[in-house]
């Protein structure tokens, strides 16, 4: 064999081995995500939809729909981890450029992952999830033989009609926007024009949904952190408040159990029961705060709030800096590339620390968008329940999470959170080249997030200071007053909160 042929054969063998290795790595990664998502869906699904179905046909339909939902959720999780995995791979190759065990991290693998995520996300969104929903609702055509295939035929026909309807709407929208008649008349433009236009509309909707949900989610995360952790209070005596609350609870409980009206108040048993429930919940909250350790009470909540405040503030600063870059340099616009050149230069000016910060910010914004999505009034009903989520709601959750996660790479690159350019078909969206859309998007995110910080931090601190000053004023006011009131308060703390009129006797010698 000639040396030239030997070298060509060696190159082909190397390419073959690299392709096999990439396929194995992608398969293992997706299998791991699929198993994880299967446990997640099993944790939330309703058992009556799967375990207690007596009809074998319905059970098979539910299992098929469950598998499609698991596949879609795995694709969503892969889309979330796609950009962090690419950034970390680049930094690892920069730190270990000649390490033999890191040679499998290359541009071909990362580019293939981007293409697979894009393909599977659109496949799940356009075909698999509608098929799963219509498949669970189908019963077969009238007069046909019942069975799985009858449902498959009905679902396929309905899905075909839906596809024609969506393509017709896309054609009408493109005819209104585009003035080129040749592109509208050519059937070949279906793959080159209409499908990318449809992908652009879906990505734009997902990015807008992320824009609206992320600031709302940040606000919700501040509120939830205050509810889950023990908040420190200024100028507060927990023992006194707890004693007062217990005394109020005992008094109201006696009045509810006796069922008799007092001589100066008309008894309303329903109102008293509601008051008793409120007092009991307040007492339990005070007992929980009292049992908390000083470290948990004085350090846990401030650290959590400082972390949220720091991450949100850094996100706003990064977006503001990106706005200045957009005004000064055209290279700051989000763009797509076809070749992933990893291991050559860091995508952050701060090196590995900046890359780690980018990964944290991307995951933090995704978490806040998911929290904001489920906290918004429009999508609160989609919130899954443990062991109580029916199959249609699972399908709705998978579609929502897929829309949010598939838009995350475009969202992060549009805001300038990372400088890692979009790979594959993610950079083919038409609106990414529009300066006004990108600039307005960055300005809206900065304004909404800053408003969230002002509302949840500045106003919260002001309200806490006013509450502390009010408590101090009331505590000082309890020390004065008539001797009878001071004696009763000294016998039982918290008696001043009960509706018991305490007549104050006038000093001797004073005229009425």
Written account of the structure:
It is globular and about 105 Å long. The protein has 512 residues and is mainly alpha-helical. The protein has a two-stranded parallel sheet with strand order 1-2. It has 14 helices and two strands.
Placed side by side, the strands forming the largest sheet appear as 1-2
> What is the gyration radius calculated from CA atoms?
31 Å
Write the H/E string, N to C.
Answer: HHHHHHHHHEHHHEHH
The major β-sheet equals:
2 strands, parallel
Specify the overall morphology. globular
- Strand segment tally: 2
Q: Helix tally?
A: 14
User: How far is it from the N-terminal to the C-terminal residue, by CA?
Assistant: 127 Å
In what range is the share of β-strand residues? under 5%
Pick out its properties.
single chain; 512 residues; mainly alpha; 14 helices; 2 strands; disordered C terminus
Give a short summary of the structure.
By secondary structure, this protein is mostly helical. The chain is built from 14 helices and two strands, in the order H-H-H-H-H-H-H-H-H-E-H-H-H-E-H-H. 72% of the residues lie in helices and 1% in strands.
Strand-helix topology:
Elements: H1 3-44, H2 56-95, H3 107-137, H4 148-177, H5 181-185, H6 189-228, H7 238-258, H8 269-291, H9 294-328, E1 336-337, H10 352-375, H11 391-406, H12 408-415, E2 422-423, H13 435-478, H14 483-491
């Amino acid at each position: 064999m000639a040396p030239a042929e030997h070298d060509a054969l060696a190159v082909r063998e190397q390419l073959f081995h690299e392709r096999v290795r990439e396929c194995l790595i992608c398969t293992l990664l997706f299998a791991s995500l699929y198993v994880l998502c299967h446990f997640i869906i099993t944790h939330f699904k309703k058992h009556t939809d799967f375990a207690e179905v007596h009809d074998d046909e319905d059970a098979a339909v539910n299992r098929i729909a469950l598998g499609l939902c698991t596949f879609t959720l795995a694709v969503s999780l892969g889309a979330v981890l796609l950009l962090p995995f690419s950034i970390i791979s680049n930094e690892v190759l920069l730190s270990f450029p000649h390490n033999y065990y890191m040679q499998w991290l290359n541009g071909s693998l990362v580019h293939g992952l981007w293409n697979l995520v894009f393909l599977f996300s659109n496949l799940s969104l356009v075909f698999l999830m509608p098929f799963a929903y219509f498949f669970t609702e189908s019963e077969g055509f009238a007069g046909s033989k019942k069975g799985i295939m009858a449902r498959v035929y009905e679902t396929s026909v309905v899905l075909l009609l839906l596809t024609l309807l969506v393509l017709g709407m896309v054609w009408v929208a493109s005819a209104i926007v585009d003035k080129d008649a040749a592109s509208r008349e050519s059937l070949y433009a279906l793959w080159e024009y209409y499908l990318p236009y449809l992908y652009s509309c879906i990505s734009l909707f997902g990015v807008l949904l992320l824009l609206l949900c992320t600031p709302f989610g940040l606000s919700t995360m501040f509120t939830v952190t205050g509810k889950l952790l023990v908040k420190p209070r200024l100028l507060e005596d927990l023992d006194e408040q707890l004693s007062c609350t217990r005394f109020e609870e005992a008094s109201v409980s006696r009045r509810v159990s006796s069922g008799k009206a007092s001589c100066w108040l008309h008894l309303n048993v329903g109102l008293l029961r509601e008051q008793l429930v409120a007092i009991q919940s307040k007492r339990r909250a005070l007992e929980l705060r009292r049992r908390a350790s000083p470290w948990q009470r004085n350090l846990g909540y401030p650290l959590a709030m400082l972390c949220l405040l720091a991450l949100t503030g850094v996100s706003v600063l990064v977006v503001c800096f990106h706005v200045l870059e957009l005004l000064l340099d055209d290279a700051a616009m989000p763009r797509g590339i076809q070749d992933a050149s990893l291991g050559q230069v860091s995508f952050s000016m701060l090196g590995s620390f900046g890359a780690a910060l980018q990964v944290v910010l991307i995951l933090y914004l995704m978490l806040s968008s998911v929290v904001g999505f489920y906290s918004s009034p429009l999508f609160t009903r989609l919130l899954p329940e443990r062991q109580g989520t029916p199959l249609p709601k699972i399908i709705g959750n998978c579609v929502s999470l897929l829309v949010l996660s598939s838009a995350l790479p475009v969202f992060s690159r549009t805001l300038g959170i990372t400088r890692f350019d979009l790979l594959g078909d993610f950079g083919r969206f038409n609106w990414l080249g529009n300066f006004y859309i990108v600039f307005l998007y960055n300005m809206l995110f900065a304004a909404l997030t800053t408003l969230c910080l002002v509302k949840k931090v500045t106003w919260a601190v002001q309200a806490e200071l006013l509450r502390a000053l009010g408590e101090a004023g009331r505590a000082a006011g309890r020390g004065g007053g008539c001797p009878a009131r001071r004696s009763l308060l000294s016998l039982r703390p918290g008696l001043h909160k009960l509706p018991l009129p305490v007549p104050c006797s006038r000093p001797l010698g004073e005229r009425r």
